[in-house]
Specification:
With 397 residues, the chain is mainly β. It is built from two helices and 18 strands. The protein has an 18-stranded antiparallel β-barrel. The longest helix is centred in the first third of the chain and has 25 residues. The radius of gyration is 22 Å and the shape is globular. The N and C termini lie far apart (47 Å).
Length: 397
């Protein structure tokens, strides 16, 4: 039964109150003699990430030129009697130019770059190390599960996705982690607070088998969808080489009035030699047989999948087949990645288009990194031809 808006506001206030109170306790309990000692025993980090993003998209929209700077300050306390806390502030600002549609700035004549200006508390949570190898986390937090195909923080965007949630992780069984999370609010990459309508996350991961990591999950997104699945992935080392694989299947039932059922499948195989990794994969986000819709991943880190041009953030109604190959590794020193995707419809078999992705990145001088990234999507029957270029500079202290 759907709760009233008053109940939702009350729950959010209660969550925030518990987080702030427990955080203050954990920040001061390490040495209650002085506030200075409590703060000094913690650790603080500063992260800066400048990014220039250019988008050239066929159609009536002007090219986007986004120049943004993300600043993050993170403070983590020491542990006292099982309690610890973390507080993290983020800011994203336009630098030099703002000629792009952030989805929040009203510049709809330009192509979209989903990095709006904002200042917010990105994370604010309390951890309690409970008995029986159990961790309880309360507050605003990032949640990354498996490869983030279904639940992730979207760390690529300048505004990370985080969750107001109660999360319990138990590792009492050998080589096993069981995660239960109750999400009351989703803080998305556009700066919106989307009421979570009390989503439930159930996830179990086991790594006891030599050749298989096994994950079983249920993502119960209230008034959105229920998804259940199983994932296997592993690696076989052979002297200086290795073989890798991943297999995954999930089924999803939509909760809307025209509710439908759709399937997800993944098959991936790869090899690694002399630091070079090659991967061949097939991913299916299936369509409903009655044409009502397709498999969706609303809480995923979507930029990692189906091409960096982000043409398939929402799965088309006829579903999506993605046949892809990638090669990555360090050439002398920089890490280079090249990928190719061929996109088709699950129902009807229409050719959507294809995409080529390329990136080269390098860490240097301990605290710094640089990344150059390019995506070219060539449309057949879906979306429009698009080129995207990113230049990114990062610093961590």
């Amino acid at each position: 039964m759907r709760k009233t808006s008053i109940a939702k506001v009350s729950m959010k206030k209660s969550l925030l109150a518990v987080s702030v109170a427990a955080f203050a306790m954990s920040a001061q309990a390490e040495d209650a003699a002085t506030l200075y000692d409590a703060i000094a025993d913690g650790s603080a980090d500063l992260t800066l990430r400048y990014r220039y993003e250019f988008v050239d998209q066929d159609g009536p929209l002007d090219n986007a030129n986004a120049s943004t700077l993300k600043t993050r300050v993170t403070y983590k306390t020491q542990t006292f009697e099982g309690l610890s806390g973390l507080l993290e502030f983020d800011n994203n600002s336009d630098v030099l130019t703002g000629d792009f549609n952030s989805t929040q700035n009203g510049k709809t004549d330009y192509a979209v770059v989903a990095d709006p200006k904002y200042t917010e508390i990105n994370q604010a949570y309390v951890d309690y190390a409970a008995p029986a190898s159990t961790l309880l986390r309360v507050g605003r937090q990032r949640i990354n599960l498996d490869n983030q195909r279904f639940v992730g923080g979207v760390a690529w965007r300048q505004n990370e996705q985080t969750f107001d949630a109660y999360t319990l992780v138990n590792k009492a069984l050998p080589d096993t982690a069981v995660t239960l999370s109750y999400i009351t609010n989703v803080n998305d990459i556009f700066g919106n607070n989307i009421n979570g309508e009390n989503h439930g996350i159930l996830h179990a991961h086991n790594s006891s088998l030599d050749l298989a990591n096994v994950s079983a999950y249920g993502y119960l997104l209230n008034e959105i969808s229920d998804t259940y699945g199983l994932r296997l992935n592993g690696k076989l080392a052979m002297d200086s080489a290795a073989l890798m694989y991943a297999l995954e299947y999930a089924t999803q039932e939509q909760d809307q009035a025209n509710g439908y059922t759709a399937d997800y499948m993944l098959a991936e195989i790869g090899g690694q030699v002399a630091g070079i990794t090659a991967t061949l994969g097939y991913e299916l986000l299936g369509a409903d047989d009655d044409g009502k819709g397709a498999f969706q991943t609303p809480l995923a880190t979507k930029h990692k999948f189906n091409g960096w041009a982000d043409k398939f953030l929402a799965t088309p109604k006829d579903g999506l087949e993605d046949l892809y190959v990638s090669v990555s590794g360090k050439v002398i020193s920089p890490k280079v990645t090249i990928a190719y995707h061929q996109f088709k419809a699950d129902e009807g078999g229409a050719d959507y288009g294809n995409e080529i992705d390329f990136s080269i990145g390098q860490d240097f001088m301990e605290h710094y990194n640089v990344l150059l990234k390019y995506a070219h999507y060539s449309a057949d029957t879906y979306a429009s031809d698009t080129d995207k270029i990113w230049l990114q500079l990062g610093a961590n202290f």
